[in-house]
Request: fold
Amino acid sequence: MTPEFEEHLTELLDQVVGYNPSADRSQISKAFEAAFDAHDGQTRKSGDPYFIHPVSVSKIIAELKLDVPSVCAGLLHDCVEDTEMSVQDLQKGFSNEIAFLVDGVTKLGKFPWTTREERQAENFRKMLVAMAKDIRVILIKLADRTDNMRTLQHMSMDGQDRIARETMDIYAPLANRLGIYWLRAELEDLSFRYLYPNEHKTLTNDLEATQEQREAYVEEVEGILRRIMGDNEVRCDVQGRPKNLWGIYNKMRHSKRTLDQIYDVVAFRVLTDSIRDCYAALGVVHEKFTPIPGRFKDYVAMPKPNQYQSLHTSLIGPRGERMEVQIRTYQMHRVCEEGIAAHWVYKEGRGILSSDDQQKFAWLRQLVEFQRDLKDPTEFIDAVKIDLFADEVYVFTPNGDVKAFPAGATPVDFAYAIHTEVGNHCAGAKVNGQMVPLRHKLRNGDTVEIITNANQRPNKDWLKTCSTARARSKIRHHIRAEQRERGRALGRELLERAFRQAGQSLNKAQKQGELKRASIELRCGNKEDDLLMQVGFGKVIPAQVLKLLFPEIEVEQKPEEPKGRLQRISRIFTKARRRAPSGIRVQGEMDVLVRFAHCCNPLPGDAITGFITRGRGVTVHKIDCPKALDLDPERRIDVSWDGDAQVQHPVTINVHSSDKPGLLAEVSKTFSELKVNISQANCRVTGNGRAINTFHFQVGHLDDLKVVMRTLQKIRGVYSVERV
Reply:
C-alpha cells in the first residue's frame, strides 16, 4: 500500500473511533486493504487511482456516524461491480452482513434493457428492496452519489446533465426525506452547478461580492440574540448560517426577485436544552422583533414525517430586513444532522427502525410497495419523484391522526392513504365538515372525512385529481384489472360464436385443456384466461384458435351472414361505405368511411381494432385503448392497415425537459432536420427548473414517430419523450 493511502487509512480510523471508541479497527483495515488490492491498476476519468473513490465514500459514511460494517461496505461497494470479487467472496472473507450491504448498492448486471430509463428504474427497484431490509443500504448509496457529484467535472457533458438531474430529482429529495439536511443541501448545490451553470456562476459571484456585508449583519444579529436570551435567562447557543445556493436561487425564481430583494439568505439557529426553553426563546424573539404573519411553523408539536423538529419563525430584523430564526433542542439538532441514522437500532446484523419509528417512516414502506405495483419504468420513477417531493401538507383524520401528503393532494389521495378499498369506493368527501368535490386541494390543518359507496369505482378522471404515487398506482391497477376482465369476457364471447359456427363446443375444449394448450402455442401465456384476453383485445383472432385445435375443419375467415342485432349493424356499415384515403382495410375492403379515434390516435404500425358507429362508419382505435374496451363488443369489426397507402396521421408527444434557454430552439431544429412539420406547440414551465413541451405533428408510420422520439431523447436537457 502506498504512503498516501496509509495516511487515508489512518484518517478514516481516527474519524470512526472519534464517534465509536469501541470500533473494530482491524475489520476496517482488512476491508481497506482488500479493496485497495481489488482496484489496483484501475483509474478514474480524472486519472487518479480508482481507490480514492471508495475511500472518499467511506469517509462520508463516517460523517454520518454509521457502524463499522457500513464503513467496510463503503470501502468495498464497487468491488462486485468493477472487479473480480463476488458477493460470495465477501461472505467468506468478511460477513453476510457486509456482503448484503455491498450487494444492495451494486448495479444490476448486463440485461437487455431497451432504454436507460428502464435500467435506472430496475437498479433503483433493487436498491429499494435492499433498503426495506436494511436502511444502511440507502445511506451508503447517498455517500456514493455525493462523492460522484463532487468529482462530476471529469464526466462528459451529457453524463453531467444526466447524473445531476437524477441527483436533483431523486437523491437530494431522498436525503431530505431521511432528514440529512447537510447532505441534501450539498447534493442540490452540486446539481445546480451542472444543470444551470450560468445561473450558478452569476449567483456565486453576486454572493461573494456582498459577503462582507452579510458577515457583518450575521455578527450583529447573533450578538443581539445572545444578549436578549441572556437577559431572559434562556440558556442557548446561537448560530448564523447561509442558506444553500439552490434554495436561494429557487426563492429568487419563484418570487421573481433579484438577490438584492431576497433578505433571508441567512438563517439563525437557536439551540436549547429543553422543549420548554424552545418556546421561551420563541417568546423572547417575538417580543424583540416583529413576526411576519403566516410565517410561523411549529414542527416541534407536529414533526415532519422524517422526524425533523424545530420552531421556524420569520421576523423583521435589524435595518428592517427579513430574517428566519429556527429554534430547537440539542437532541433535535442531532436528529437533524444525522437524520434517520439517529432512529435505527441494530438487530441480528441489520439496520432496522426502532418499533416506535416504524410508523413515522411509513413512506419508506410505500416506496417498496410501488416497486412491486408499478411495472412501467416511467411510472415507477415518476412515482418515486412525486413521493420524495419536499412540499407537504398536514391534515387530520376524524379521529385526530395526522397524515402528510404532497402539496396539491386531494381527498382521493387521502382515501387511498387510509385503505385501498376506501379509495376504490370513495364517493365524496367532507373537509372541515363541508362537502367538497374530489378534486378539492387539501390545506394544512384540514380535517378530512371520506364518504364511501359500494357501487363507486375508480375511473381515469381520478388520475387527474390525485397527487400521490400510491393513489395513482391503485387507480391504474383497478382500471387495468377491469380492462382485463372486459377483454376476457369479450374474448369468450367471440370464441363461443366462432366455435358454434364451426359446430364445436368451447366448454368441451376448455374442460379438455385445449384452450390452455392453444394459449401456450399461440404465445398468449400459460393460462386459458391469457388466450381469452388476447382474443378480446384483438391480438389473436378466433380463426387462429380453431385452425390450431381443429385442423381438419375448413375455417371460414369471413363471418356468416349476420342476424338480429348484428344484421342491423351490418346495414349501418353498408350505408357508411364511401371511398376515403384512410389507409385502413375493413374486413379486406378499402372503400369504407373511416375515422380515427382522438382518444388514442392510432398510427400505422399500432395494433388496431374497429367499431361500427351509427352514421359515422368505422372508428379505429388502438387495440389496448381503454375506451375501446368499454364499447359494445357486438359493434366490433376487424380492421387492418393498408401497407401501400401513403397517408399522414396526426400525433402528439410531450417532451419533458429542463427549463433553460436555447433548448426549445434545438428541439425545433431537430424537427426541421427530420423534415417533420409541427402543426402546434405548447410549452409549460412546471417548476423546479423543468418544463413540459407539447408538440402536434403528422407522421406516416409508428417507426417514423420512434425515430423522432429517439432523436429528441438524445438532446442534452431532455429527460423523457412520451406519446400522448
Summary: The domain at 3-197 is CATH 1.10.3210.10 (Hypothetical protein af1432). Residues 108-114, 344-350, 557-580 have pLDDT under 50 and may be disordered. The first helix runs from residue 3 to 19. The CA atoms of residues 25 and 329 lie 33 Å apart.
